Amino acid sequence: MVKKDKMNEVPLFETEVGVYTKVLPKIEAKLREFGDQTILAPKLFHYSLQAPRCIVFEDLVVEGYTTINNRHCSLEEVKMALTKLAKMHAISYQMIHRDNNHDLANFNKTFVNTIDLADFPVLGNGIKLIKDVISDQSDLQKFLPHIESVERFLIPKVIDLLNATKNGNQSGVQVLNHGDFHVKNLMVKNDGNKLKDLMVVRSDTHKLSFHNQSIHNIISSHSWTIK
C-alpha cells in the first residue's frame, strides 16, 4: 500500500509544473534561434501549486492527436520521438554547461530517492513480489537466480545513481531526462497515412523528469517495439 499523506512529500507536481513553465519554453526558444520549429509540449493555459492543485493544457484530441496505447510503434514514430528527445537533451545540456542556467540542476528529486521506503512497501517489497510471480511461472523460473543476485543491492544502487549528480558526480552527459519516456505516453497526429507530429505528453509525463546522465532515457526507450 502507498500512504497517501506521504505522497504529498514527493514533489512530483512541482517538478511537472517547473518543466512545463521554466524549462521547455526556454528549450523551444533556443531551438527557434536555430530555425527549428519543433514543438515539445502543448499550450499551457493555467496551473496552480495551491490546493486544489491543477494544470490545464490545450486539448490535443481536438487538434487531431491520438494515443498509441497497446499497438506497436511505426519506425517513423520512433524516429520522431527520439529526435524530439535528442533535441531536449542537447539544448538542456547547452543551458547548464554553456549558458550557466542552473535551473535544471534543481530537478533532482524523483520518487525513489525522495521517499522513505518504509512508507512505501510496494517499492521495498517489489523484488519479493516479482520473485513470487516468477516462481509460479515455469517458463520464467530460469530468471529467478538473476533477480536474486541483485536483490540486496538493487534499490540502494538505484538511489545512488539518482543522487549522483546532486552529490557532485558529473560523469557522463548531463541533461534533462524525461522521467516517463514510454510508448503509452505518446500522442501522434497524422495527415492521411503520413505522420505529421508527435508529443510525449499523455498522463503525468514530466512529473518524474530529472537532471542526470542521458543514458536513462536511452535505456527506457530500448523496450519499444516496432511493427
TrEMBL record:
Q: Could you identify this protein by its name?
A: CHK kinase-like domain-containing protein
Alphabetical list of SMART domains matching this protein: CHK (SM00587)
Q: Where does the record place the CHK kinase-like domain?
A: 55-208
Pfam families per UniProt: EcKL
Q: Which InterPro entries match?
A: CHK_kinase-like (IPR015897), EcKL (IPR004119), Kinase-like_dom_sf (IPR011009)
Q: Which organism is it from?
A: Ceratitis capitata
PANTHER family recorded: CHK KINASE-LIKE DOMAIN-CONTAINING PROTEIN-RELATED, PROTEIN KINASE-LIKE DOMAIN-CONTAINING
